[in-house]
Design brief:
With 243 residues, the chain is α/β, with parallel strands linked by helices. It has ten helices and ten strands. The protein has a six-stranded parallel beta sheet, sandwiched between helices. Helix 6 links the parallel strand 6 and strand 7. Helix 2 crosses helix 3 and helix 5 runs parallel beside helix 10. The longest helix has 20 residues. The chain is elongated. It starts with 5 loop residues before the first strand and ends with a helix. 37% of the residues are buried.
Length: 243
């Protein structure tokens, strides 16, 4: 096990989670910013359209390993309803997302980031996410303002989804590092842990139940570090640093 120059992180149930998610609340909040609604569509009308665009069409693409971003989904949804906004695509994402769920930091995430920042371990994010990296960065700035992420990558900005190694390879190119100099931390045994491993990155399985209904019983089929709390990671890093 080699002391990392950089640690890459997943987003959901790794650094942040989304308690009390309610898409209807998000759609209702965004509709308030409509500048033109000629068909007098209600929040219920928007919700039905969203179920078709996001729940059916976009989800079918995601199941085969690709992603269509939320900005595209919003364009299709609202143009099909004849609704206009004076908001930018990122503003539309953010207003919906924050209303659907403001989000919360995973236990100990802030303290862990303080530790790696203090010890000059570089950091960044790769996430399978419907929303853009710009919208996710805003969420990190609000909920984990001590982060020093060099970049935030989401699958909706890069077409492919983890475990496709292309996302990991692009991250290594952006960082200017080789795979053996980088760790990846995430909660999903296949997308995060096996995905990082097949790219040659050392995987850390962050197996914390916060934000999840239950443990799914799956385990990564590769060599990895298994932790349940972020202080386990910082304790190990301290040992490696002083060894």
């Amino acid at each position: 096990m080699k002391y990392p120059k950089m640690i890459l992180f997943d987003y959901g149930n790794t650094l942040l989670y989304e308690p009390g998610w309610d898409s209807a609340r998000g759609n209702a909040a965004l509709l308030k910013y409509a500048t033109n609604n000629p068909n007098n569509c209600t929040a219920e009308d928007v919700q039905k359209g969203a179920a078709l665009i996001f729940g059916r069409h976009i989800e079918s693409v995601r199941k085969i390993g690709y992603d269509i971003g939320g900005q595209v989904g919003n364009r299709v949804l609202y143009e099909s309803l004849g609704i206009d906004f004076s908001l930018s695509p990122v503003e539309m994402e953010t207003i919906f997302w924050d209303a659907a769920c403001p989000g919360a930091a995973m236990p100990g995430a802030g303290a862990m980031l303080n530790y790696i920042n203090k010890n000059r371990i570089r950091s960044a994010v790769i996430s399978n996410l419907l929303w853009s990296g710009a919208a996710l960065t805003q969420r990190f700035n609000r909920l984990l303002p001590n982060h020093q992420f060099e970049f935030v990558m989401t699958s909706s900005d890069y077409l492919v989804r983890k475990p496709d190694r292309l996302l990991f390879d692009i991250a290594l190119q952006k960082a200017g590092l080789s795979a053996d100099e980088v760790w990846y931390c995430g909660d999903n045994p296949q997308d995060d842990i096996e995905g990082a491993s097949q790219a040659g990155i050392y995987p850390v399985w962050y197996d914390n139940i916060a934000g999840k209904d239950h443990a799914d019983g799956q385990h990564p089929q590769c060599t990895h570090l298994h932790i349940h709390e972020w202080d386990e990671l910082t304790t190990l890093l301290e040992k490696l640093k002083n060894s």
